[in-house]
Amino acid sequence: MQKELYGEEEIVKGCIRNDRHMQEVLYRTHARKMYGICLGYAGSSRDLAQDMLQEAFVKVFRNLKQYKHKGSLEGWIRRIVTNTAIDILRSQTRHLEMIHGDVPDQQTAKDNDALSALAAKDILNTIARLPQGARMIFNLYALEGYSHQEIAERLEISSGTSKSQYSRARYLLQQWLQPSDS
Predict the structure, then answer these.
(1) What are the residue ranges of helices labelled H in 93-158?
(2) Tens digits of per-residue pLDDT, 49-91?
(3) Which tens digits make up the pLDDT trace of 162-171?
């Protein structure tokens, strides 16, 4: 079977015309990576991640006319996926679960060595253990590249809360990922 190649603009125009084949091409091109993003927000719930992905692609197809071909299509889709995941999580809970407690002042480069020794799957599984609010903040800052101010505005929290939750999440992850000295 010969693989069909389409240009991004051709795919977008086809999707806008409701061409089912082009919609499938767009979905298959981006779904796997976007599902990974959804898993990062859904924690261990694959069903929730699948719901997030489905809802996000409904929004992608509904709003594709607004895509201006400035920046990457993947980045535009990623933003919709991220916002959809956050909206779904926020609608499910009135109060985001945060991490409470202090983080020691010392954070050494040695702590980061644990991260480099693990597979991505192990890291994602460990991130999934974080409380929902802290996991969202960690994902938005560390993986998606949002600033603490942008996170604060999106989640309706203070930027200080975003910073402290990120710091606490990072500390917990380092503790959980630290190789045991047996």
Answers:
(1) 109-116, 120-127, 132-138, 148-155
(2) 999 999 999 999 999 999 998 889 999 999 999 999 999 988 8
(3) 999 999 999 9
Residues 51, 97, 105: CA angle, nearest 5 degrees:
125
- The length of the chain, given as a count of residues: 182
User: Residue 83 has what DSSP assignment?
Assistant: H
**Whether the Cβ atoms of residue 128 and residue 136 lie closer than 8 Å to each other:** no
pTM of the model: 0.70
CB atoms within 10 A of CB 112: 12
Residue type, 55: E
Distance separating alpha carbons of residues 91 and 71, to the nearest angstrom: 30
Spacing of C-alpha 100 from chain mean position: 23
**Angle of CA points 29, 14, 18, to nearest 5°:** 100
Spell out the domains of the chain, with CATH numbers in brackets.
Answer: 8-92 (1.10.1740.10), 109-177 (1.10.10.10)
Q: State both tokens at 67.
A: 């895509």
Spatial distance between the Cα atoms of 39 and 139, rounded to a whole number of angstroms: 10
